[in-house]
Every structure is written in structure tokens, then in C-alpha cells.
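Something for you to look into today, if you have time. Could you write out one complete protein record for me, on any chain you like? Leave the record below and I will have a look.
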Amino acid sequence: MRFQALRLATLAALACCLEAPVARAQPGVELSDEAKLSRGVGLFESGRYAECVTEFRRLLGPGSTELDEPDVIERARIYFAACLMAAGKEKDADDQFREAIRESPQMRGPDRLMFPQEVIDRFLQVRDSMLTEIKKSEEERLRQARAAAEAAAQRRARERDRVARLERLASEETVVTQNRRFIAAIPFGVGQFQNGDTALGYLFLGTEVALAGTALGAMIVQLNLNARIDDADAPVTDELNANLKTAQDVLLFSSWGFLAVAAAGIVEAQLSFQPQVTSTRPRALPRELRPASSRASEAFVRPGVLPAPGGLGLGVFGRF
């Protein structure tokens, strides 16, 4: 038998024993993965290959849940394959080598101190035959790792965005202002400002102020010209009458223009009346929700004067 040399060496090392001791579980005691592996290893080292195959088939067979640790499972498969080779089941041994390589593509070969050269050579042959599969497995592993890293980065980005939105919402407060109809009847764009239409409000305000200013200026000019006409010493000329006529026309057009624009503004404000306007304004975050850097910047220590029995005393104020 090809494993005879290994068996003889093992028996010589044991010397006074006919068989290598095999770890056995005490009733009601759950063995660790290492202990379970040592039972099969003991069978292999003592040359009891048929029992070794049976034991490892129990540990590694389909549906078995005996072993959990990946490192122990990897070593168990190598021992299982070695037992199968010793029992003349090379094809089954190749299957165990392939399964071990699939589970750990970068695994090292069997230890030369623990296994005969035939087991090592067989492992290397199986691994060489799986180079393409190993390469694809590594590429798939790298792809999955990249996908997992990208997914994690996306989750972190979404979490940052979520926290930023929450901070933005927490740093703002909504203010609801109840509007009044009588305010919408005030000219100079007041109704538009109340409705929240600032652009139209400024348009009405600017137009009405310009027309009112023009009317006021024309009135002042008209009063000045009338005063000059009423002055008995001042001659009344055609130019004076023409200027008076122009001042009267400007006053008339600007006054009616002001009234028309003011009325249009009031009508528009009433038609567009909003019972309430919602707006937002900044609000300070509660201190416990602020970033640590922000809280640190608020810390301070300063001296102060404190009242004390019989007078005043110096003290230190601070916030941390």
C-alpha cells in the first residue's frame, strides 16, 4: 500500500501503543471543532483509513453541521482527501480537494511534515486543473468586494444626506402669518407684500410713489406760479401762463394716474388675497444636536465678580 511507509512511521512513534488514541466525546459534552477534527486526525495517523473516511464523511458530508470554523473545515477536507487516497478512492479525494480550493482559492498546499508526498502532489495537480476556475472565482470575489464597497459608500452618502436634511429641517422653523382683508386695501403695494408677492409689491410701490411725487411736485409748482400771478407788482406773461397750464396738466395726469394705479393694486391684492402665508426662518439647533466642533467653539472661561459675605469676590465663569 502506498501509505505503508507513513503507517510504519506512525506506529514506530507510538512505540508502546497498538493504536493512536482517538478523542471521544463524553456523554452530554459538546466538543469544539478542533476536538472533532482531532478524532479524524487520530484515525488517519493510526492508519485506520476506513474509519477515518467514515468519521470525516460524518463531519463534512452533505447537510452536515458538525463543523463551523472555516479554518478547521479547510484542514478537515485535506485530511479527508488523504484518507480517501489511502483507501483507494482517488476520485472522491479529488472532489474534496476541489471543494477545499473553492472555499479558499488562496489556500496553501498540505504540510509536508503531516502528509505524504503523494497527497501533496495530488493536491497540486487538482489545483493546476482549476486555475481557470480559481481565476474566475477571484474575479468574482473582487467584483463582489467592489460592489459591497460601492454599496457601503452609497449608504454612507445617503446617511450623510439624511442627516444634513434633518439638520436643515431642525435649524428652520415654519411661521404661519394670518393675513387681513383691510390690509389688502392699503395702496403702495402693501396688499401684495402681505400676499407674499414682493416683486409685484415693489412694482406698485415704485409706480405709486413716482406718481404721488410727481403730483406733489406739480402742485408745488402750481402754487408758486399762482402766487406770482396774484402778485400785483409782477407782470403776467404768456410764458407764465404756459408754465401754469403745464403744471396743472401734470398735476391732473399724475393724480389720476396715482388713483388708477392705487385702485388697480388694491383690486389685485383683493383678488389674490391669501388668508395665510407660510414662511420659514432660521432657528438655532439644540446644543446636544450640534456638531462637537460647534459645541467646543461655544466653550469659554472668563473671570467675574461675585457677591460674597462682607463684600465682593473674584470668581471664574465658564461653559463647556
About this structure: The longest helix spans residues 131-170. The two ends are 81 Å apart (CA to CA). The chain has twelve helices and four strands.
